[in-house]
């Protein structure tokens, strides 16, 4: 089992524990705001399951039907997570509306708030694990889960503060008002998760600093070639796809041209170990005098 899968399984376990704690807090108090927090935790568990499935699919080797691999499965998981976040937000808005119509004071508020705070602390620790490991492992599914969990932590803190204010002031309407604010924040979080994932599904190129590094590596290790042009990149989960045309002297042997390609590939893989590289060798009359000029 890979490290990414183990972390995804950990997300499911943490999500179930947090869901249990937040549900208990809601049952103790009857708070619409705490109920909204518990609803979001249901989404956390569901999306953690989706992330685990996507990670396992993405880890499958290339086959006849998928010669480029299954790496984009993680992007589909992140889009699904965004959709589920938005659905949860709409459910919370509905409950908040009912709360506005029939506001009431809370039961056993201090015990419920303490339990909710403990659940939020656990979420905060796991959120840090997901974001740091997701970046390290270049996993869109883990990163999406981590950023979603971060929004959950922020809203949970806001809910606790707001419910405490409702108790102190006696303004029961603050409870559904907070639930509505939580829902709006969740909607924004879901939108960000979806747009970030769609860029991967649309074969977005690597960021500008990484592209500049790629160009520099080609230039530094293409001794014997004339130029490299039509450099294209895209990313899919941990994989970075790079392809370009390498112009060489038309009189050199196939072996010599191949050695140049091997040297460039080795250098690129030292910087991007998961890179998939395709180089199209061309004779000098195909030169465009653009891109990366070697000599």
TrEMBL record:
<dbReference type="InterPro" id="IPR027469">
    <property type="entry name" value="Cation_efflux_TMD_sf"/>
</dbReference>
<dbReference type="GO" id="GO:0005886">
    <property type="term" value="C:plasma membrane"/>
</dbReference>
<keyword id="KW-1133">Transmembrane helix</keyword>
<dbReference type="GO" id="GO:0015093">
    <property type="term" value="F:ferrous iron transmembrane transporter activity"/>
</dbReference>
<feature type="transmembrane region" description="Helical">
    <location>
        <begin position="113"/>
        <end position="132"/>
    </location>
</feature>
<dbReference type="Pfam" id="PF01545">
    <property type="entry name" value="Cation_efflux"/>
</dbReference>
<dbReference type="InterPro" id="IPR002524">
    <property type="entry name" value="Cation_efflux"/>
</dbReference>
<dbReference type="GO" id="GO:0015086">
    <property type="term" value="F:cadmium ion transmembrane transporter activity"/>
</dbReference>
<dbReference type="InterPro" id="IPR050291">
    <property type="entry name" value="CDF_Transporter"/>
</dbReference>
<feature type="transmembrane region" description="Helical">
    <location>
        <begin position="153"/>
        <end position="171"/>
    </location>
</feature>
<keyword id="KW-1003">Cell membrane</keyword>
<protein>
    <recommendedName>
        <fullName>Protein p34</fullName>
    </recommendedName>
</protein>
<feature type="transmembrane region" description="Helical">
    <location>
        <begin position="75"/>
        <end position="93"/>
    </location>
</feature>
<keyword id="KW-0813">Transport</keyword>
<dbReference type="Pfam" id="PF16916">
    <property type="entry name" value="ZT_dimer"/>
</dbReference>
<dbReference type="InterPro" id="IPR058533">
    <property type="entry name" value="Cation_efflux_TM"/>
</dbReference>
<dbReference type="InterPro" id="IPR027470">
    <property type="entry name" value="Cation_efflux_CTD"/>
</dbReference>
<comment type="similarity">
    <text>Belongs to the cation diffusion facilitator (CDF) transporter (TC 2.A.4) family.</text>
</comment>
<dbReference type="InterPro" id="IPR036837">
    <property type="entry name" value="Cation_efflux_CTD_sf"/>
</dbReference>
<feature type="transmembrane region" description="Helical">
    <location>
        <begin position="7"/>
        <end position="26"/>
    </location>
</feature>
<feature type="domain" description="Cation efflux protein cytoplasmic">
    <location>
        <begin position="209"/>
        <end position="284"/>
    </location>
</feature>
<feature type="domain" description="Cation efflux protein transmembrane">
    <location>
        <begin position="11"/>
        <end position="202"/>
    </location>
</feature>
<dbReference type="GO" id="GO:0015341">
    <property type="term" value="F:zinc efflux antiporter activity"/>
</dbReference>
<keyword id="KW-0472">Membrane</keyword>
<feature type="transmembrane region" description="Helical">
    <location>
        <begin position="38"/>
        <end position="55"/>
    </location>
</feature>
<keyword id="KW-0812">Transmembrane</keyword>
<dbReference type="GO" id="GO:0006882">
    <property type="term" value="P:intracellular zinc ion homeostasis"/>
</dbReference>
């Amino acid at each position: 089992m890979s490290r990414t899968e183990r972390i995804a399984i950990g997300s499911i376990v943490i999500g179930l524990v947090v869901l249990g704690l937040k549900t208990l807090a809601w049952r103790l108090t009857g708070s619409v705001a705490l109920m909204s927090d518990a609803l979001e935790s249901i989404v956390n568990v569901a999306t953690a399951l989706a992330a685990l499935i996507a990670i396992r699919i993405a880890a499958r080797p290339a086959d006849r039907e998928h010669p480029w691999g299954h790496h984009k499965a993680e992007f589909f998981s992140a889009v699904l997570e965004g959709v589920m976040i938005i659905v949860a937000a709409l459910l919370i808005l509905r409950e908040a509306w009912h709360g506005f119509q029939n506001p009431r004071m809370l039961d056993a508020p201090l015990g419920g708030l303490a339990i909710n705070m403990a659940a939020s602390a656990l979420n905060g620790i796991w959120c840090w694990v997901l974001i740091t490991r997701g970046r390290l492992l270049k996993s869109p599914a883990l990163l999406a889960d981590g950023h979603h969990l971060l929004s959950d932590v922020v809203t949970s803190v806001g809910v606790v503060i707001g419910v405490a204010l409702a108790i102190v002031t006696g303004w029961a309407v603050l409870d559904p008002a907070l639930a509505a604010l939580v829902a709006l924040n969740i909607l924004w979080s879901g939108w960000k998760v979806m747009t970030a994932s769609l860029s991967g599904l649309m074969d977005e190129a690597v960021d500008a600093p990484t592209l500049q590094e790629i160009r520099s590596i080609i230039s530094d290790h293409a001794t014997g070639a004339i130029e490299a042009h039509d450099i294209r990149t895209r990313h899919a989960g941990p994989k970075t796809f790079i392809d370009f045309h390498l112009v060489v002297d038309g009189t050199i042997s196939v072996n010599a041209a191949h050695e140049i390609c091997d040297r460039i590939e080795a250098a690129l893989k030292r910087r991007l170990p998961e890179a998939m590289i395709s180089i199209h060798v061309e004779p000098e009359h195909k030169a465009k005098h653009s891109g990366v000029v070697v000599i």
